[in-house]
Queue: 2 jobs
Job 1
Amino acid sequence: MKNKALNTVLNGILRENPVFALVLGMCPTLATTTSAINGMSMGLATTFVLICSNVVISLLKNLIPNKVRIPAFIVVIATFVTMVQLLMQAYLPAIYEVLGLFIPLIVVNCIVLGRAEAFAAKNNVGLSALDGLGMGLGFTLALTLIGAVRELLGTGCVFGLNLYSETYGMLIFVLAPGAFIVLGYLMALVQKLLKK
Amino acid sequence: MAKLQSSFKNMLLSLTLIALVAAAALAGVYMLTTAPIEEAKVAKQQSAIMQVLPEMEGITIAEAEEVNGITLHKAYVGEEWVGTAVEASTEGNMNMPFGGTFRLMVGFDNVGNVVRYVVLEQAETPGLGAQMSTWFCNPDKPKSNILGKNPATTNFSVSKDGGDIDAITASTITSRAFLEVVVKAYNGIAQQPMPIEAVSSATQLHEENVVVEEDTTGRKNCKERGRENCKERGRCKNNNVQEGGQQ
């Protein structure tokens, strides 16, 4: 049992990492990773929504008839996303200003609905919570990594820590094309490491 | 418990129930966060006022005045009027922005030159129109930089329309709306009698009163805000360098 729990968490972080292995949720992955801190905030917001929606959906799975499960899941997910948005606006206005536009998009992030459908609707509450945690952490890790690489190559800073002069930064990495380039290389690297 | 069948009654009941509980939960969170969200907005407005005004010791802000939907925050050092922070939005613009209303705080010194500006609220496209927060204050691009320019002597419209200001690349609509708001803000103070040359002693007296009222709270806040501003300004400078390289 303990093993299964640990596996569920690790599964999301490594083997089935939502970004590098499942290639889900590309919209926030590409859009919000202009810096490490932005990527991390987006990842943590998604983690919160993932855990909450997985728990609630796992609790409600027998109450929801099969034919209306998708609308029911979406209502649950949207509720949590709106809560995150309001709480962020109230208590973290600086981060909300940067991520504000992308927070409502967590609703249609395929990771959240995907995990609800593929995992929470078939497993018990405890495992679903752990799956949400694992997937969320995997997503956060991936976003932070992409954000850090883009920020480092683009501006010479990571988490606001200046490593080399900004004038040598390749600004393409902060812009949209850089997101695709970094994502592609990181994905190839992670795939190679996991194959071993 | 067995899974509910997909009968009409079950589907209706379960969806209605879920929607009701979700609505109740959201209402609760909304009520809880309304006050902090308002506070955060006010704090942002206050720090924006201090950010756009000329950097001076002991600035006090007079009570806000509303003129045609534009809010004026006059700043004084002692009794001398040193500048005005003007809050204006795209509401009623000829040139509407691309993504809904945006609001600016524009600071003018006492002769009407733009000191600095801050974007208070906007929903323009990230990477395009949203660049307005740094585009028009970039010292490396004098043709798009509005800081230090006076709307009375410079034509504040985009160069495409025969003006003197370069629009944001690929965001002419946003740029037009932005410049119109700045001009609107300038007209707000231009219509006002200039307190420095104010002739009637009555108005002067009135203004003195306002300053004195604000003095006790205003000054203390000033110091706190001053420190915040330093940070904010530092960040803006960094952004400028980044943006400069991009274009």
Note: The two ends of chain A are 27 Å apart (CA to CA).
Job 2
Amino acid sequence: MTMQPDRWLPKLVLSPTLAASLLFVYGFILITVALSFTESRLLPNWEWAGVERYVELFDSERWWTSAINIAIFGTLFIALSMAIGLLIAILLDQKIRGEGFLRAIYLYPMALSFIVSGTAWKWILNPGLGLEKLVQSWGFPNFTFDWLVNPDMAIYTVVIAGVWQSAGFAMALFLAGLRGVDSEIIKAAQVDGASTPTIYRRIIIPTLRPVFFSVTLILAHIAIKSFDLVMALTGGGPGTATDVPAIFMYQFSFSRGQLGLGAASAVMMLMTVIAIMVPLMYAETKSSG
Amino acid sequence: MSKLSRASIYAVLVLAALYTLAPLWVMLATSLKSLDEIRDGSLIAAPLAPTVEPWLKAWSSACTGVRCEGLKPFFWNSLLMTIPAVLISTFIGALNGYVLTQWRFRGSEVLFTALLVGCFIPFQVVLLPMARTLGMVGLSDSIFGLIFVHVVYGLAFTTLFFRNYYVSIPQDLMKAARVDGAGFFTIFWRILMPISGPIFVVCIIWQFTQIWNDFLFGVVFAGADSQPITVALNNLVRTSTGVKEYNVDMAAAIIAALPTLFVYIVAGKYFVRGLTAGAVKG
């Protein structure tokens, strides 16, 4: 009678995970959505408030600073990481001696916490003793680099640190994609007299479409997680100049005791992720299926 | 290809490698300098009179907020949190992957897709209810609470890893084993476990890196005594009593990075495989 438990055992084994997902992912999302429609301040207060929290959110200048910042950071971070990653991957694909060693170097930042890399870049970019002083000592006494403390430019320091950390990852994914390209097609093109750049532009890069999708998806995911990096690098400052939605949500929910507003900002973050991910995944399944 | 263009390819690649290494070098060099040498010397110069003083201070006496015991207690917190969370989430993920590939039932693919959503949500959308729940069951501000949270939100990824690995195992193997009278757990232990070595390594490394490096859950759910090292590092850098000690900051940052860097150096191949495995499906 050994077969008997096999009917229900698999389902039993899977059930704790499913229950956890149902409660802690789906259930909690619903609770957060519900909270965002209430009068909650310091404590949850289930009095219905309609869309008041959202009106409050959209009236908040700080929220718009955060939204614009994540748009700037997200776009530049994704575009630059991809461009650099693809370039390095193509160069590495030219039968390079020491490829494995170079690859290991490009990828090590991915093993670091954003808090660690934020701390490192905060020191490197600090205007007093960091990069600014280094370049001045190289014979450019008038060189200034104050982005870290300049409210208009500080968000770009987050881009610098983020791209430094993630470009290698994009490179690894592109390289894996390049290695998957059928070498027969490339040989045929070479026989036809096509130059290397043309082969890449016309033949190889178009076949990497699915890789572009997954790289975009992963980088977008990292961009949304940028909370850690911003916290370590600028702490949202100077002032509120580098706030991103994740910091807004954290501040209002856990420091300022505005649960309803915090929940509303979290819901907006989820909506943004859905608005970006769903079309991308739809396009990906459509093109591959 | 001409000699010149090959030379320029190497030049670009080497420059990129130097750029990638530069922050690590600056951190290391700064952490071994005295404050005077930092003020007078160059950012990228090697330390002239190396000192381990900043490292000792970062480890055992630097202030992280009100406490001045260095990173040591928080390093152990991170270890106590990470090891159980990694092992539990990996083990459950292995069983889930086994069920989802070898014991499929009606609706199991739909359930798997529903589970995957957990990989994509911004965690902000679950923080408030989770903080409340941990408070209600008495786990807030504790390492147990953090272990629980990391297991719950790590399961989607660990299940994904094992499912994608086990999906290529032929069903015939399973059928033969079942005809021989092997049950659910016997098949798992005797047939799947012996061939699961690589995926366990990939999954454990992935989870270890994710959980050790986590900041969000740590800063939201940990109490003063259960903070992981990332939160303590951030506090250490922000706590300034008079002179800003960049050398101590850098030593602290390297200490916080050492475990994951070590794993990367000894098992980089598996680390990369985890990154790309997560990406293929992600």
Note: The domain at 62-288 of chain A is CATH 1.10.3720.10 (MetI-like fold).
